[in-house]
Amino acid sequence: DMLDPERLIQCPLVKHHRIRARRFPYHLVKCKESNPEIAKKLATCPFNARHLVPQADLSDHIMKCNDKAFVEQDVVSRACESPQEQLNNGSTWQAPPCAEDWETDLLEGSESTFVWASLHYSEQNS
Q1: Tens digit of pLDDT per residue, the chain (126 long)?
Q2: Are 74 and 67 in contact (CB under 8 A)?
Q3: CA angle 98, 99, 102 (to 5 degrees)
Q4: Within this chain, do residues 2 and 36 fall inside the same structural domain, yes or no?
Q5: 113's torsion region: left (phi>0), alpha (psi -120 to 50) or beta?
Q6: Is residue 9 part of a domain?
Q7: Buried-exposed string 59-92: b where 16+ CB fall within 10 A, e elsewhere
């Protein structure tokens, strides 16, 4: 929880577990592993992975989930951007130039072929 990381949250898998908000995601992973039969009966909210609800209640939860508003707001704001703005807001990373040319190396053939353990083998037989 961004507002109070020390707030206690009830575990959706084991009701008597109370976990600090800052540790809650870690607890969910461990608790799912420790309680696979209970975890099978729960579904994860598509808007917030911390929301585990009974599978039968998932569609109702999706309709009412508070985190849905954040996703919808992001989608709407992205839709209002021009394609050029969307490109500008994306990553600008480019791969550095590479001087290696594996095809040429293969065509020329390598004089020194590396064979794993050949040095170790020759030392034992010396």
Answers
A1: 457 899 999 999 999 999 999 999 999 999 999 999 999 999 999 989 899 999 999 999 999 998 887 777 766 666 666 666 656 666 667 777 777 777 777 777 655 565 665 555 555 555
A2: no
A3: 95
A4: yes
A5: beta
A6: yes
A7: eebeeebeebeeeeeeeeeeeeeeeeeeeeeeee
